[in-house]
Amino acid sequence: MGVNDTGNEVVLSSGNSTVRILKYGATVLSWTVNGKEQLFLSEKAVLDGTKAVRGGIPLVFPVFGKATEGPCAQLPQHGFARNHVWELLGQVSESPLTVQFGLGPEYLSEEARAAWPYDFSLVYTVVLQDNALVTKLTVDNTDSKPFEFNVLFHTYFRIPDVDKVSVDGLQGAAVTDKVSKTNYSAESTEVRIAQEVDRVYGGVPDARNVTIKSGDTQLFHVVDRKNLPDVVVWNPWIEKANGLGDFYPKDGYKNMICVETGSVDKWTSLQPGQSWEASQTLKVML
Ligand code: BG6
Protein backbone atom coordinates (compact mmCIF):
# COMPACT_ATOMS: atom_id res chain seq x y z
CA MET A 1 0.00 0.00 0.00
CA GLY A 2 1.20 3.53 -0.68
CA VAL A 3 3.54 5.07 -3.23
CA ASN A 4 6.65 3.42 -4.63
CA ASP A 5 9.08 5.40 -6.77
CA THR A 6 11.03 2.86 -8.83
CA GLY A 7 13.07 5.45 -10.74
CA ASN A 8 11.34 5.53 -14.10
CA GLU A 9 7.92 4.72 -12.70
CA VAL A 10 5.69 5.53 -9.75
CA VAL A 11 3.40 2.79 -8.47
CA LEU A 12 0.38 3.53 -6.31
CA SER A 13 -1.47 0.83 -4.36
CA SER A 14 -4.58 1.49 -2.35
CA GLY A 15 -7.49 -0.73 -1.34
CA ASN A 16 -8.43 -2.93 -4.29
CA SER A 17 -6.58 -0.81 -6.88
CA THR A 18 -3.13 -0.08 -8.28
CA VAL A 19 -1.85 2.41 -10.81
CA ARG A 20 1.52 2.58 -12.57
CA ILE A 21 2.73 5.90 -13.94
CA LEU A 22 5.76 6.34 -16.18
CA LYS A 23 7.58 9.60 -15.44
CA TYR A 24 8.10 9.98 -19.19
CA GLY A 25 4.94 11.82 -20.18
CA ALA A 26 3.52 11.23 -16.66
CA THR A 27 1.79 8.47 -18.60
CA VAL A 28 -0.51 6.19 -16.65
CA LEU A 29 0.50 2.75 -17.98
CA SER A 30 -1.72 0.49 -15.94
CA TRP A 31 -4.73 0.69 -13.66
CA THR A 32 -5.95 -2.46 -11.97
CA VAL A 33 -9.07 -2.97 -9.88
CA ASN A 34 -9.39 -6.27 -8.02
CA GLY A 35 -6.36 -7.46 -9.99
CA LYS A 36 -8.00 -6.80 -13.37
CA GLU A 37 -6.34 -4.45 -15.87
CA GLN A 38 -8.63 -1.62 -16.97
CA LEU A 39 -6.40 0.05 -19.58
CA PHE A 40 -5.04 -1.08 -22.93
CA LEU A 41 -1.28 -0.89 -23.30
CA SER A 42 0.22 -2.08 -26.57
CA GLU A 43 2.68 -4.96 -26.14
CA LYS A 44 5.05 -2.95 -28.35
CA ALA A 45 4.54 0.35 -26.54
CA VAL A 46 7.93 2.08 -26.27
CA LEU A 47 8.65 2.81 -22.60
CA ASP A 48 12.27 3.98 -22.81
CA GLY A 49 11.50 7.64 -23.34
CA THR A 50 12.15 7.77 -27.08
CA LYS A 51 8.50 7.81 -28.20
CA ALA A 52 5.10 8.62 -26.75
CA VAL A 53 3.47 5.58 -25.15
CA ARG A 54 0.90 3.62 -27.20
CA GLY A 55 -1.72 3.00 -24.56
CA GLY A 56 -2.57 3.90 -20.99
CA ILE A 57 -3.35 7.59 -20.54
CA PRO A 58 -0.97 9.84 -22.50
CA LEU A 59 -1.36 13.56 -21.76
CA VAL A 60 -2.03 15.86 -24.68
CA PHE A 61 -0.81 19.48 -24.26
CA PRO A 62 -0.60 22.17 -25.63
CA VAL A 63 -2.09 21.02 -28.95
CA PHE A 64 -4.46 18.25 -29.93
CA GLY A 65 -3.51 16.70 -33.29
CA LYS A 66 -1.12 18.56 -35.59
CA ALA A 67 -1.42 22.33 -35.88
CA THR A 68 -0.62 23.62 -39.35
CA GLU A 69 -0.65 27.28 -38.33
CA GLY A 70 -0.43 29.43 -35.23
CA PRO A 71 1.86 29.18 -32.18
CA CYS A 72 1.72 25.36 -32.02
CA ALA A 73 2.57 24.77 -35.69
CA GLN A 74 6.16 23.75 -34.92
CA LEU A 75 5.14 21.15 -32.34
CA PRO A 76 4.67 17.45 -33.06
CA GLN A 77 1.22 15.84 -33.07
CA HIS A 78 -0.41 16.09 -29.59
CA GLY A 79 2.26 18.48 -28.30
CA PHE A 80 5.13 17.90 -25.89
CA ALA A 81 3.61 16.82 -22.55
CA ARG A 82 3.50 13.15 -23.50
CA ASN A 83 7.12 12.97 -24.60
CA HIS A 84 9.05 14.68 -21.83
CA VAL A 85 10.03 13.40 -18.41
CA TRP A 86 7.93 14.93 -15.62
CA GLU A 87 9.18 15.49 -12.10
CA LEU A 88 7.50 13.55 -9.31
CA LEU A 89 6.46 16.31 -6.92
CA GLY A 90 5.42 13.73 -4.36
CA GLN A 91 2.52 12.26 -2.49
CA VAL A 92 0.05 14.92 -1.38
CA SER A 93 -2.57 12.78 0.36
CA GLU A 94 -2.80 9.31 1.82
CA SER A 95 -6.56 8.98 1.69
CA PRO A 96 -7.42 9.07 -1.11
CA LEU A 97 -3.93 8.21 -2.31
CA THR A 98 -2.78 11.18 -4.39
CA VAL A 99 0.45 12.03 -6.20
CA GLN A 100 1.49 15.00 -8.28
CA PHE A 101 3.88 15.47 -11.18
CA GLY A 102 5.23 18.74 -12.57
CA LEU A 103 6.44 19.96 -15.95
CA GLY A 104 7.83 23.37 -16.88
CA PRO A 105 9.99 24.85 -19.65
CA GLU A 106 13.18 23.87 -17.80
CA TYR A 107 12.36 20.20 -18.50
CA LEU A 108 11.74 20.63 -22.22
CA SER A 109 14.10 19.77 -25.05
CA GLU A 110 15.62 22.72 -26.89
CA GLU A 111 13.38 22.00 -29.89
CA ALA A 112 10.20 21.98 -27.82
CA ARG A 113 11.24 25.11 -25.97
CA ALA A 114 11.98 26.90 -29.24
CA ALA A 115 8.74 25.66 -30.79
CA TRP A 116 6.59 26.86 -27.86
CA PRO A 117 8.51 29.69 -26.17
CA TYR A 118 6.22 30.38 -23.21
CA ASP A 119 6.80 30.17 -19.48
CA PHE A 120 4.30 27.82 -17.94
CA SER A 121 3.85 25.37 -15.15
CA LEU A 122 1.86 22.13 -15.37
CA VAL A 123 0.84 20.06 -12.36
CA TYR A 124 -0.69 16.66 -12.99
CA THR A 125 -2.56 15.10 -10.09
CA VAL A 126 -3.50 11.42 -10.00
CA VAL A 127 -5.92 10.23 -7.33
CA LEU A 128 -6.49 6.52 -6.79
CA GLN A 129 -9.76 5.55 -5.16
CA ASP A 130 -11.60 2.24 -4.84
CA ASN A 131 -12.95 1.55 -8.36
CA ALA A 132 -12.08 5.08 -9.55
CA LEU A 133 -9.18 7.06 -10.94
CA VAL A 134 -9.14 10.86 -10.99
CA THR A 135 -6.78 12.76 -13.27
CA LYS A 136 -6.41 16.50 -12.95
CA LEU A 137 -4.21 18.96 -14.85
CA THR A 138 -3.48 22.49 -13.69
CA VAL A 139 -1.98 24.94 -16.17
CA ASP A 140 -0.35 28.14 -14.89
CA ASN A 141 0.70 30.97 -17.15
CA THR A 142 3.93 32.24 -15.59
CA ASP A 143 4.80 34.29 -18.68
CA SER A 144 4.24 37.99 -19.31
CA LYS A 145 2.17 37.24 -22.43
CA PRO A 146 -1.01 35.20 -22.87
CA PHE A 147 -0.95 31.75 -24.48
CA GLU A 148 -3.50 29.33 -25.91
CA PHE A 149 -3.67 25.59 -25.50
CA ASN A 150 -5.61 22.34 -25.82
CA VAL A 151 -5.70 19.65 -23.15
CA LEU A 152 -6.75 16.02 -23.54
CA PHE A 153 -6.60 12.89 -21.39
CA HIS A 154 -6.00 10.27 -24.11
CA THR A 155 -7.39 7.25 -22.24
CA TYR A 156 -7.11 3.81 -23.86
CA PHE A 157 -9.80 1.69 -22.13
CA ARG A 158 -9.40 -2.09 -22.21
CA ILE A 159 -12.59 -3.75 -23.44
CA PRO A 160 -13.50 -7.40 -24.01
CA ASP A 161 -14.84 -7.05 -27.56
CA VAL A 162 -15.08 -3.96 -29.77
CA ASP A 163 -17.99 -5.50 -31.68
CA LYS A 164 -20.11 -5.35 -28.54
CA VAL A 165 -18.95 -1.98 -27.23
CA SER A 166 -21.00 1.20 -27.20
CA VAL A 167 -20.48 4.69 -25.82
CA ASP A 168 -23.46 6.45 -24.35
CA GLY A 169 -23.84 10.12 -23.44
CA LEU A 170 -22.57 11.79 -26.60
CA GLN A 171 -25.98 12.25 -28.20
CA GLY A 172 -26.55 15.56 -29.96
CA ALA A 173 -22.93 16.76 -29.68
CA ALA A 174 -21.30 18.58 -32.61
CA VAL A 175 -19.14 15.97 -34.34
CA THR A 176 -15.94 16.63 -36.23
CA ASP A 177 -15.37 13.36 -38.03
CA LYS A 178 -11.70 13.01 -38.99
CA VAL A 179 -12.29 9.84 -41.05
CA SER A 180 -15.14 11.03 -43.29
CA LYS A 181 -13.88 14.64 -43.01
CA THR A 182 -17.38 15.88 -42.31
CA ASN A 183 -19.16 17.73 -39.51
CA TYR A 184 -22.57 16.74 -38.23
CA SER A 185 -24.70 16.51 -35.14
CA ALA A 186 -24.38 13.21 -33.23
CA GLU A 187 -27.39 10.95 -33.48
CA SER A 188 -29.60 10.10 -30.54
CA THR A 189 -28.27 6.56 -30.37
CA GLU A 190 -25.18 5.19 -28.66
CA VAL A 191 -21.88 5.21 -30.57
CA ARG A 192 -20.78 1.82 -31.92
CA ILE A 193 -17.52 0.84 -33.61
CA ALA A 194 -17.53 -1.16 -36.84
CA GLN A 195 -14.74 0.60 -38.73
CA GLU A 196 -12.00 3.16 -38.06
CA VAL A 197 -13.51 5.85 -35.84
CA ASP A 198 -11.81 9.16 -35.12
CA ARG A 199 -14.29 11.78 -33.98
CA VAL A 200 -14.39 14.80 -31.73
CA TYR A 201 -17.73 15.16 -29.96
CA GLY A 202 -17.71 18.86 -29.14
CA GLY A 203 -19.59 20.49 -26.28
CA VAL A 204 -20.84 17.44 -24.38
CA PRO A 205 -22.84 18.88 -21.45
CA ASP A 206 -20.95 18.63 -18.11
CA ALA A 207 -23.77 16.72 -16.46
CA ARG A 208 -23.63 13.92 -19.04
CA ASN A 209 -22.42 10.62 -17.71
CA VAL A 210 -20.35 9.17 -20.55
CA THR A 211 -20.69 5.40 -20.27
CA ILE A 212 -18.77 2.63 -22.01
CA LYS A 213 -20.79 -0.57 -22.24
CA SER A 214 -20.24 -4.08 -23.53
CA GLY A 215 -23.64 -5.32 -24.63
CA ASP A 216 -25.89 -4.45 -21.69
CA THR A 217 -23.04 -4.47 -19.17
CA GLN A 218 -21.71 -1.11 -18.03
CA LEU A 219 -17.90 -1.15 -17.98
CA PHE A 220 -16.87 2.45 -17.24
CA HIS A 221 -18.40 5.78 -16.34
CA VAL A 222 -16.50 8.95 -17.23
CA VAL A 223 -17.90 11.54 -14.84
CA ASP A 224 -17.19 14.85 -13.10
CA ARG A 225 -15.66 16.39 -16.18
CA LYS A 226 -14.42 19.83 -15.26
CA ASN A 227 -13.36 22.11 -18.13
CA LEU A 228 -13.39 19.06 -20.44
CA PRO A 229 -16.35 19.69 -22.74
CA ASP A 230 -15.12 17.61 -25.67
CA VAL A 231 -14.87 13.85 -26.00
CA VAL A 232 -12.75 12.14 -28.65
CA VAL A 233 -13.64 8.59 -29.64
CA TRP A 234 -10.87 6.75 -31.46
CA ASN A 235 -10.36 3.20 -32.64
CA PRO A 236 -7.78 2.63 -35.39
CA TRP A 237 -9.45 -0.55 -36.72
CA ILE A 238 -7.55 -2.95 -39.00
CA GLU A 239 -5.62 -0.89 -41.52
CA LYS A 240 -4.52 1.92 -39.22
CA ALA A 241 -3.50 -0.54 -36.49
CA ASN A 242 -1.39 -2.34 -39.09
CA GLY A 243 0.31 0.92 -39.99
CA LEU A 244 1.23 1.80 -36.39
CA GLY A 245 4.60 0.16 -35.68
CA ASP A 246 4.10 0.26 -31.90
CA PHE A 247 0.58 -1.20 -31.96
CA TYR A 248 0.63 -4.86 -30.99
CA PRO A 249 -0.96 -7.37 -31.21
CA LYS A 250 -2.28 -6.17 -34.54
CA ASP A 251 -5.78 -7.32 -33.64
CA GLY A 252 -5.47 -5.40 -30.35
CA TYR A 253 -7.92 -2.84 -31.79
CA LYS A 254 -10.61 -5.35 -30.79
CA ASN A 255 -9.72 -4.89 -27.13
CA MET A 256 -9.43 -1.12 -26.88
CA ILE A 257 -11.39 2.03 -27.26
CA CYS A 258 -10.07 5.51 -26.68
CA VAL A 259 -12.62 7.76 -25.02
CA GLU A 260 -10.64 10.92 -24.43
CA THR A 261 -11.98 13.90 -22.52
CA GLY A 262 -10.53 17.23 -23.47
CA SER A 263 -10.75 20.87 -24.24
CA VAL A 264 -9.82 20.67 -27.91
CA ASP A 265 -12.61 22.07 -30.05
CA LYS A 266 -11.66 25.62 -29.12
CA TRP A 267 -8.38 27.03 -27.82
CA THR A 268 -8.30 27.94 -24.15
CA SER A 269 -6.62 31.29 -23.63
CA LEU A 270 -4.73 31.97 -20.42
CA GLN A 271 -3.61 35.43 -19.36
CA PRO A 272 -0.30 36.05 -17.51
CA GLY A 273 -0.57 35.04 -13.86
CA GLN A 274 -3.74 33.01 -14.45
CA SER A 275 -4.37 29.39 -13.67
CA TRP A 276 -6.71 26.85 -15.29
CA GLU A 277 -7.68 23.38 -14.16
CA ALA A 278 -9.31 20.36 -15.78
CA SER A 279 -10.24 17.03 -14.24
CA GLN A 280 -12.09 13.81 -14.91
CA THR A 281 -13.10 10.78 -12.88
CA LEU A 282 -13.00 7.31 -14.45
CA LYS A 283 -15.13 4.75 -12.62
CA VAL A 284 -15.02 1.01 -13.11
CA MET A 285 -18.48 -0.54 -12.85
CA LEU A 286 -18.10 -3.84 -11.03
C1 BG6 B 1 -6.48 10.54 -31.34
C2 BG6 B 1 -6.64 11.35 -32.59
O1 BG6 B 1 -6.72 11.36 -30.23
O2 BG6 B 1 -5.14 10.06 -31.27
C3 BG6 B 1 -6.27 10.49 -33.80
O3 BG6 B 1 -7.98 11.81 -32.71
C4 BG6 B 1 -4.88 9.92 -33.63
O4 BG6 B 1 -6.35 11.28 -34.97
C5 BG6 B 1 -4.81 9.18 -32.32
O5 BG6 B 1 -4.62 9.03 -34.73
C6 BG6 B 1 -3.44 8.59 -32.02
O6 BG6 B 1 -2.46 9.55 -32.16
P1 BG6 B 1 -0.94 9.18 -32.03
O7 BG6 B 1 -0.18 10.45 -32.32
O8 BG6 B 1 -0.75 8.71 -30.62
O9 BG6 B 1 -0.67 8.08 -33.03
* Average predicted local confidence, pLDDT: 98
- The strand line-up of the biggest sheet is 7-8-9-10-22-19-18-13-16
Helix proportion range: under 10%
First and last CA, distance: 22 Å
**What composes the largest sheet?**
9 strands, antiparallel
The DSSP helix count reads: 2
Properties at a glance:
286 residues, mainly beta, nine-stranded antiparallel sheet, eight-stranded antiparallel sheet, 22 strands, 5% helix, binds 6-O-phosphono-beta-D-glucopyranose
Summarize the topology.
Blueprint: E1 2-5, E2 9-14, E3 17-22, E4 27-33, E5 36-37, E6 59-60, E7 87-93, E8 97-103, H1 110-115, E9 120-129, E10 132-141, E11 147-153, E12 156-158, E13 165-168, E14 174-177, E15 182-185, E16 191-192, E17 197-202, E18 210-214, E19 217-226, E20 230-235, H2 237-243, E21 256-270, E22 275-284
Antiparallel strand pairs: 1-2, 2-3, 3-4, 4-5, 6-11, 7-8, 8-9, 9-10, 10-22, 11-21, 12-21, 13-16, 13-18, 14-15, 14-17, 17-20, 18-19, 19-22, 20-21
The structure holds 6-O-phosphono-beta-D-glucopyranose.
6-O-phosphono-beta-D-glucopyranose binds next to β20.
Structure description:
This protein is mainly beta and 286 residues long. Helices cover 5% and strands 48% of the residues. A 9-stranded antiparallel sheet has the order 7-8-9-10-22-19-18-13-16, with no helix packed on it. Strands 6, 11, 12, 14, 15, 17, 20 and 21 form an 8-stranded antiparallel sheet that branches. The protein is globular and about 50 Å long. The protein starts with a strand and ends with a strand. It binds 6-O-phosphono-beta-D-glucopyranose. Residues 52, 77-78, 154, 178, 198, 232, 234, 260 line the site of 6-O-phosphono-beta-D-glucopyranose (BG6).
